[in-house]
Structure formats: C-alpha cells, structure tokens
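testing teh design pipeline on a random one, pls ignore if ur not involved
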C-alpha cells in the first residue's frame, strides 16, 4: 500500500493507548486517527473517523471488544479489526474471530510484528499469533473442545440467574456488577457450552448437570 494506513486505537488503559500511538506515529506509513476506551466508544469513533484498521482490546469496562466487533460487522464498517489483547483462551479468541475480527495478536508481540500485522489487516489478510493459530486449528479439528472448558464460579452464578428468567440488568443489580460485565460472562459461558443464546445455555446446563 502506497498511502498511509489510518489506525484507531481501542484500549481501556491510557498508558497502553499512549504507547501504541507513539509507536505508530513514529513508524513510517501509519497515521493514528483517534482513540477509544471501550467498545461502545469504538463503534462511535469508527463511524466518525472511518479508519483502515482498528486495534481492539477485548475486556474493557463499559463495553467489550467482541460486542464492538459484532456491531462493526453488522453495520458493515470498512475498517478491519485487529484484536490486541493479553488473553488467548478459547473463550476469548473464538468469539472474537467469529464476530468478524481480521486478526488476533497478543500484547507481547514485538513492534515490527505489530506493524506488519496492521499492514496485513489493512489488506484484508488474516493475522494470528502462533498461540492463537494453534488454538483455532484445534477447535476446527475438534469443534466441541471449547465446550468442555469448565464454567467459572461467577459464570455459574450468572447462568443460574438466567435460568430464573432474570434480564441482564436484573443480574447486574443482583451481583453488583455492570451490564457490560454480565454480557461478557454470557459470551464466555456461551462459548464454553457451545451455544448461541440464553435458552440453549440453560437447556445445555441442565442436561450436563451444571444446573439443577
């Protein structure tokens, strides 16, 4: 690509955003259009700035990365999303890729590797860290592997309240957490149970003896 690649940086830690901004502004061929501190803000900024590539963290208070990726895919945003996170578990990687992320890198990636990944993402090529690539290969070969991962204590609590018919808002109030955190727990337990919605999660949990 001859023209500069425009980037939007999404992370809830100001220090991380500053570091990434400094890195890309000092590298030839990139321009940083802006920053966002959560997924909701990321979708708004993407619509206003129209970047080539969005560097997206996953776990952020006020709106997670997977929901943002899903929304960007729904509205057919032009930007390619490159996940940049510290998490490489199946419950993080698979939902992000399924939601529409072009690539997935860990935050310990070297500077040169990150710049190369952003260029590749801008061209529409898939970029995966070796650890994530091996996990996806395993998931393809054994699609039910993620569903065998045990639920955390908090995920079990959320699932039990879902089974009682509570809404996300009611669950958040009951557990003294945010609605965004409830959605994150639901995303993770859906992935672990191998389901796509609340009803299927409850049915599967009863069948496996997780509930009841």
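output:
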């Amino acid at each position: 690509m001859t023209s500069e690649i425009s980037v939007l940086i999404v992370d809830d830690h100001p220090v991380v955003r500053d570091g990434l901004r400094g890195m890309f502004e000092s590298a030839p061929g990139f321009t940083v259009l802006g920053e966002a501190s959560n997924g909701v803000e990321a979708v708004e900024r993407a619509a206003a700035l129209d970047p080539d590539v969005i560097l997206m963290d996953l776990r952020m208070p006020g709106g997670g990365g997977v929901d943002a990726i899903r929304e960007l895919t729904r509205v057919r945003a032009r930007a390619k999303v490159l996940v940049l996170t510290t998490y490489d578990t199946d419950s993080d990687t698979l939902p992000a890729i399924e939601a529409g992320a072009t690539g997935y890198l860990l935050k310990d990636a070297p500077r040169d590797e990150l710049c190369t990944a952003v260029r590749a993402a801008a061209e529409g090529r898939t970029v995966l860290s070796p650890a994530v690539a091996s996990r996806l290969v395993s998931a393809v070969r054994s699609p039910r592997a993620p569903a065998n991962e045990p639920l955390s204590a908090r995920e079990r609590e959320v699932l039990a309240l879902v089974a009682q018919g509570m809404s996300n808002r009611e669950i958040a109030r009951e557990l003294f957490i945010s609605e965004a955190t409830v959605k994150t727990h639901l995303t993770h337990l859906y992935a672990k149970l191998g389901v796509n919605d609340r009803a299927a999660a409850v049915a599967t949990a009863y069948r496996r003896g997780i509930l009841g």
